[in-house]
Amino acid sequence: MQQDIERVLITEEQIREKIKELGAQISEDFRGKDLVVVGILKGAALFCADLFRAISIPAELDFMRITSYGAATKSTGVHRVLLDLDYTLEGRHVLIVEDIVDTGLTIKFLKEYLSQRGPASLSVAALLDKPSRRKVEVTIDYRGFEVPDFFVVGMGLDYAEKYRNLRDICILKPEIYKS
Ligand code: XMP
Ligand code: MG
Asked: Is residue 159 a part of any domain in this protein?
């Protein structure tokens, strides 16, 4: 795996520190509130697990899985829910946890979808933000790092289902993306 890496963008240590900060901020903001943390599979699974452990207030953990139609490295804006929450969100505070916000279409879809269930609030945490590719405006309430317009892998992010277990956020060698 290591031989496929061109460059490390964000190190494991930087990620660990950032998650600690985000967890502390979330704990402060939602103290005394009924918080449901919803990780978006599969990409956000690792970030969500670490972020959830960094939250020091009572909270519920759940996951959704959605798929977007289209090419492997692009988001089309057309989504389908593969795994859903099977209970009401009425009056509860929902925190959506994503790996990366790219075009913003996935977060836009999720916010519209979940807002129909009457949550008291709907916020977004994303490990990475690629603002240069945004197609729709979205608010990221808890943001880890801004990244340039490269396809990145590691810490849950994949290329063709590989590299999710890299501990740093990395750019692969160009020949890997082509093959
Ligand atoms: P949108 O465009 O809807 O995209 O904001 C969010 C989803 O697109 C995927 N994505 C990436 N996955 N490296 C990845 O491994 C990237 O650089 C990248 N950019 C976008 C990802 O699945 C994310 O949830
Ligand atoms: Mg994803």
From this structure: no
Ligand 1 binding pocket includes 154 (Cβ within 6 Å): no
CATH number assigned to the domain comprising residue 90? 3.40.50.2020
Q: Look at residue 103 and tell me if it is in a domain.
A: yes
- Using most ligand atoms within 8 A of CB, pick from 129, 157, 158, 169 the residue to mutate for ligand 1: 157
Query: Is 102 part of the annotated catalytic residue set?
Result: yes
Confirm or reject: Cβ of 77 under 6 Å from ligand 1.
no
**pTM, entire model:** 0.95
Would you say residue 2 lies in a domain? no
For tokens 């590719």, what's the residue?
133
**Is residue 11 assigned to a domain?**
no
Check if the interface score ipTM surpasses 0.90. yes
Q: Which residues constitute the domain of residue 110?
A: 16-149
Cα–Cα dist 157/33, whole Å: 30
Question: pLDDT tens digits, residue range 26-56?
Answer: 999 999 999 999 999 999 999 999 999 999 9
Q: Compute the distance between CA of residue 43 and CA of residue 150 in angstroms, rounded to an integer.
A: 16
Rounded to the nearest angstrom, the gap between the alpha carbon of residue 149 and the centroid of all alpha carbons in its chain is 17
